[in-house]
Amino acid sequence: MSHPLDRAIALRSDGENTFQGQIPTDYANFIGPFGGVLAAVMLNAPCLSADRLGDPLSLTVNFGGPVGEEPFAVVARPTRTNRSSQHWQIELHQNGEIPVTASAIFALRRDTWADLERRFPDVPPAAEAPSLASEHLPRWVSNYEMRVVRGGMGFLAQAPEASDSSETVLWIRDNPPRALDFPALAALADNFFPRVFVRRPQFVPVGTVSLTTYFHADGAELERQGDRFLLGRAWGNRFHKGYHDQSAELWSESGQLLASTHQLVYFRE
């Protein structure tokens, strides 16, 4: 039996650059599917294309409206291909509308000088961190095993007090465990609840407007990761007039930065 994520992001080719898909309710959020699984769908289209060049470098997803439970089409077109890089435009079509758009960059990576300025957080191993209970949380949360090291990840019992910091550090992986690939990493990058829920642990209407993920690892490094836990760290910078940004990092257990992400979130009082 296939993994729930594979079923959710499955796309069937329907001619050149066009794919058909449908996301099951396993990944339901408050309105429509979890944004991370939508990001994974949008990335999966060029990943499956015969025109693909190299591995993903970046993905930007813009959420213009909700996606329903019915089937949809994803149109992914390479707009420019150079010797080592490739640019894509991606659209999700449903019921005569385009609720989600995306752009992606793929590239052939070359061996060069390398360094890592960011430092792996000082944290206990995943086995020593308590699991986040998914009861009373959106359905998609149950598809992930989250072990919180510090910082809230909810607006109910997990974060009962207001905080002057929106930082969360946690271990995370698919549930059940699944070998890591680029669509799965794109989904994991959106696993951090809106930071406004951490600063002010009360429910308000929220929604991601735009999400950009940068992939620092190549396919071989993701393959070595297998289905082990990733360490995630997320924080916000400014909450102002109905919007806030938030940034996040995803690390391997061995201390390699696999992806970083930045998104803009709408919230309403």
TrEMBL record:
Signal sequence extent: none
Domain Acyl-CoA thioesterase-like N-terminal HotDog, chain residue ranges per copy: 32-106
Domain of life, source organism: Bacteria
Segments forming domain Acyl-CoA thioesterase-like C-terminal: 124-266
Protein name, as recorded: Thioesterase family protein
